[in-house]
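[Automated response] Your request has been received and processed.

Submitted sequence:
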Amino acid sequence: MLESIAINRRVHPNLKQPFTTGHLAECLLFYGQVNAVISPSEFEELVRKCSIDNLRYLLASEALKLHIRLASFGSNQTPGTLRLNYAVYTQVGLTLESIIYQTLYKIYHNSYKCNVYVKQLMPFLDLFEHEYSLIDGFLQMPEFTTKAFREIVSQVIPNYPIPLNLFFRLHEVPKGNAPEELGTKFTFESETNFNLQQFKTDLLSQGITGHSDFGVTFLMRASDAIEDVDVSSRFKSELSADDSNSPIVQKAILDLDQYKPNNQEAITQFNEHVITDCPSVADAIDQGMRSFDEFIPLFKESRKFRHWIHSIPDDEDYRSIVNEYMKENNAKVFTDGVFYKVLKFLSVTAPVAITPIVLPKQPEIGNAVVNLAVGTAMDSFADVAFSQFNGWKPNQFVQKDLVPFLNP
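Generated structure:
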C-alpha cells in the first residue's frame, strides 16, 4: 500500500489544493517514492523552503524525482462567437538549465553559487512534456466532451438542471483573423444544446464569479483532467492532483485502467486516529511549526515505518493502515511471554536468590540492599538484552520520532 505517488499540483493562491512543501513532505514520509511534475514556480517554492544539500540528498536517493514542465496551457473565447481557442505557451529560447539558473538566482543573488548549484542539480532533473496530442484527441471526442461538460457544470452549480440528452461537441476549424485566434494551437467551434446564456445569468444571480466564458472554463478543466491521466499513466502510480479533476476522469475518460486514484484518505485516517492531538506533517510544515529542512532527519528515520506500510495489502480500505497499526501494537512480544519469564527467573532471579552476595563486615540489612540493587539491575539488563527479540513495531517510530516532530 502507498508504494509511489505522482504530484501534479500548481502554486496558485486561488487553488484549494495547491502545491506546497508540506504536502510534498507528507507524500515522502508515507510513500517514499515521489514523482513531482512541477513548473518553475513550484521549483522556486521548493528551493526557498529546502536547502540545496537536502534537495540533492532526496534526489540522489531517488526518493524524489523532479520533472520540470516549461510549457503551459491556455484558452480563450473569440468574442461574440462560440469559437474556443486552445494554446500551448512556451518561452522562446528557454532551456531547463537556464530556467533552473534563473530560479536559483532569484533566491541566492550570486552567479558563482548558482552555477555550482545548477551543476549539482541538473543530473537529477528532467524536462517534462505533456502529451498535448492526447489532449487534442480527447477534446475532439464527443463522448468525452459531453460527459466532462456535464460534470464541470455540476461542480460549478450543484444540482443544476442539465438536459438528459445533453451534448457538447468541439469541431476544429481554421483559425481566423481575430487577435484571440492568432498564435493558438487550435480553434474549435463549439456545439451544444445547453443554454449557456441562461447558465451565465444564473451564475451571476448566485454570485459565482470566474466563469464569464464558460467554454474557457470547460477547456481548462477538461485539459487539466487529461493531463492528470497523462501523469498518472506515465508513472504508473497514484496521483495527487486537484480532487475536482478525479470525477471528470472517472466519468468521462474510458478504458484507462492505469489511472489510479490517490489514497490520501488512508493518510487522513492515520492522522485522525493514530497521531491524535497533533497536526499532520503537511500542516506542521505549511503553518510554519516545522521547516522542510527539519523534516529531513525524520524522513531518514522513517525507513522501517514506510516498509511496514508497503507490506499492507492494498485492498482499497482506507482504514487498513489504522487497523494494521492497532493489530501490530496489540500483538504480544517475546518479553511478554511465559517462556521469557521462566528463562529470566532461571538465569537472573534464581541465582541471586540461591547465592546472595555477602559483603564482609556489613550488617544484614546492607547485604539485603546490595542484593536488591544487583537483582534489579540484572533484571533490567535482561529486559533490555532480550527486547531485541521483540521485533520492530510501528508505534516505536510514531512515539519516538513522529509525535515529537509534530509537537515541538
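Summary generated for your ticket: The chain has 18 helices and nine strands. Residues 5-75+89-128+223-320 form one domain.
If you did not submit this request, please reply to this message.
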